[in-house]
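Let's sit down with a protein and look at its sequence and fold side by side. We need material for that, and I hope you will provide a protein of your own picking. Once you have written the record down, we can walk along the chain together.

***
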Amino acid sequence: MNKKKMIRLTALVGVATATGVVAEANQAHAATTTTTETTNQTTNASVESTQAAVDAAQSTFDTAQTSVDNAQANVTSASNNVTSASAALSSAIANKEAATSENIASATSAVSSQAVVVASASQAVSEQAGVVSAAASVQASAQAEATSASASLSSSSANVASATSALSAAEAALTSDQSTAANNLSAAESAASSASAAVSSGQAAVDNAQAAVASAQAIVDAVAKVQSSDVINMSVAYITALKNYLANPSSANAAALQEVAKGADYVKELQQKFKSDASLDVVVDPSDPTVQEALSVYAVNLINHLRNQYGLTTAFGASANANVAAIDFVKKYYDDEDWNIFGTTGSDGKGHNKNGLDAYANQLNTSIAEDAGSGLTTWVNGKATMATTTLHNLLYAVYSDIATMLFDDGGTNNWSHAQSIFEDGTILGTDGFNNVYLGVAFDKYGYAHYELYNATEGNHLGNNAYSLDVQTAAQALLTNAQASLASAKASLQRMTTNLMVAKAAVVAAQNQLAALENSSANDLVAVTKARTQLASAETSYQTALATYKQKEEALKKAGDNLAAAQASLEAAQATLATAKAKLAELEETVANLTNADQLLAAAQAAYEQAVANLTTATGNLGAAQVDLAKAESQLALAEDTAEQAKVRAAIAAQVDQQLNGSTANDHQSAGQDATSLKTNGRALTATVATASAAKQKQGANQGRLPQTGNDDQEASTMALVGLGMLGMATGLYGYKKKKLTK
């Protein structure tokens, strides 16, 4: 799009227009028969006429702009052609300079040599085409043989499928009843096997129950003996010294307690009081619930007997839940963490797992204290060895540990084990032990752990409490074991009966299968025949398969040969194409050198023609631009004329309005009215003389018309004033800019 500036010369036009408007206004006043409607129609017609002229000028301008654009495109195209022709002319000049007889002869020789190369390459292509043709023939033959072999293989495969189907049908006829019978037999045998296994399991349960009864009986007998006799009695002097020390653990009180306790010698004396019995030499599992109950009841009774001597009325308790918690704690924080509390010599151990105690106390939300003893381990030459785990060993370990805690607990422990036994409501200065339950467990190193829990309704550690009446608890164990034995025997009897029934079902199924096999001779013949036919079909199939594979291999080889021949042909064709291209290039070079004069002349003529075309296009562009400038000026003039016609119409309308609105009283004083008009955003003010001034003059000259003498001069003066003001305003308006978009 082009943007143009248009300057309008409208000063003279404005004066002329204003003069006409004032004259029309005077005429409208002088001739009372002329109406404002006529004046307005005249000025409106002038506006319409000038607007039509603007539209026509705009159309002419648009046409001229299109002509300029087309001419500019032609100039650009002609300029490009000149550039191209100039390059061709330069090339032709260079070719002319190179067109010597020696260069022509050399190029001609090169053409001849290249022609020989082309001929050789063409021959190679022809020969390789023959090779490809032969390979294609071999490949086609191999394809036909492979297709035939495939068809034979498909036929053989169909025969195998048919024979297989026939055999399946024959076998189905043979084994229909046999299969059912065989399944029945298999099910019966499986049931018999399961019943037999159940009997074996039941027998093992009976054996285990009988062993449990024997073990419970041994425990009942042994515990009843040792519990009544294996008690630890403290002297009054020991109790007094211990109370003094626990109340005030001073050095003097500690020495006095140690003197009364008599140290290790007295411990040995107490240990010798343990009542051994042959009935205790039964091998048991320390984690067995029955053994756990016996040990914890035994230990709690020993401790409570000591607490009674000490003067305490609150007793420790024993429960299955406390024992389970003890076993779980020892496994988790000693066995799983390989935590050896005493070590291999008694002095290289890790001691109590305090972090584990804290963690487990938080887990159970209760207070826990732990005592530990040598348990099942005896000390031989400073090394710990695991003793045989019998009921005797376990009871003796508990008895020995508690005795050691009382009388040989000096040194760094400061009698802390004794404190844990004889304190009430607190253990080692820690409150929250108002309902103590004891759990006993042995770690994998053989050491005994005595876990003291404060049982609450929330942690349930006091649930499933054991009776501390040894005889009652032991008898309950025996009663439970005997009940388990009776249940196991009854279960074994049921299982034995089930086994007998299952064996009978096996015999019946075997008889049914034998009867069916004797009556299926014809079906067996059909099966044999079908199997023979299937074997023959499979042999034929294998032969056809081997032939198919052979032909497929031959086809693949022929295909590979054909592909190789085609690749060689394509290579030869590529070589021939390259040679031909080179020959054509050389021939073109010879032609260019030979025809250098003609090529140069043609290039010169083409260049001159391009220059001439450019000159013509440039001239056409100049002419179009001149036409465009003319059209632009005409458009500007037409628009100015139209705008001033609008101004004149507006002024006429204003004057007519003022004249038509005057009355007799208004004509008594002369004056000037200012008429303000707005056209296209500009204020245009014209000052005109009204009929009032003329009427005053008329009164002075007694009604004379302003045509001659001084009257004419006065009228002319008034008109010139109006024209001057109008001309100034119109001149200011006339200089404007307009944007034209194309």
